[in-house]
Amino acid sequence: MAYDQNNIFAKILRDEAPCFKVYEDDKTFAFMDVMPQADGHTLVIPKFPAENIFDLDPEYAAAVSLTVHKLAPAVKRAFKAPGLMIAQLNGAEAGQTVFHLHSHIIPRFNGLEMKLHARQMADFDLLKQHAEWIMAELKQA
Ligand code: AMP
After folding, report:
1. Ligand 1 geometric centre to CA of 139 (Å)
2. Is 114 in the pocket of ligand 1 (CB under 6 A)?
3. What is the whole-number distance in angstroms between the Cα of residue 25 and the centre of ligand 1?
4. Which among 61, 75, 83, 95 has most CB atoms closer than 10 A?
């Protein structure tokens, strides 16, 4: 399947769709998941038109990993999360629903089940606040 330039994350990168941004550098962009599986659910994407890991330029693969590594402690601190799940799905069969590569960063707590994947839209004021908490922690780093 060819990369679809009109997928929602491509639109976010072109500033044609809104998002709650937490971080950006020359190769990556990070924002809040609008249907979070837990509070603080953050997505990191490359500024590169790759559907999945198989067509991602290695330099951008490295850049996404570095951004996940930078954001993970900030998300963990912002949500006082004892655990953090990092996931990246490749192909519909693996559960991928948006076909621009992305890594999920999801706070995890003992006894708190994750919500269903990509199901329930979060309150936008809350997402804005969560993005601000993460950005405040990034400044401390
Ligand atoms: P995946 O199923 O791994 O492809 O994950 C796609 C993720 O993107 C899901 O967790 C969705 O909740 C999330 N998502 C879909 N549309 C948007 C959007 N416009 N802004 C932020 N996150 C989104």
Report:
1. 26
2. no
3. 20
4. 75
Residue 110: what residue type?
Answer: N
Mean pLDDT, residues 41-54 taken together: 98
Among the atoms of ligand 1, which is closest to the Cα of residue 32? 21
Buried b vs exposed e over 60-70: b needs ≥16 C-beta within 10 Å? bbebbeebbeb
Closest C-alpha to 48, from 20, 69, 31, 25: 25
pLDDT more than 70, % of the chain = 99
Cα of 70 vs centre of ligand 1, distance in Å, is 21
pLDDT of residue 1: 67
Superfamily of domain 8-140: HIT-like (3.30.428.10)
Within 10 angstroms of residue 23's Cβ, the number of other Cβ atoms is: 18
Domain boundaries, the chain: 8-140
pTM of the model: 0.97
Which of 11, 13, 85, 97 best tests ligand 1's pocket when mutated (most atoms within 8 Å of CB)? 97
Segment 52-75 mean pLDDT: 98
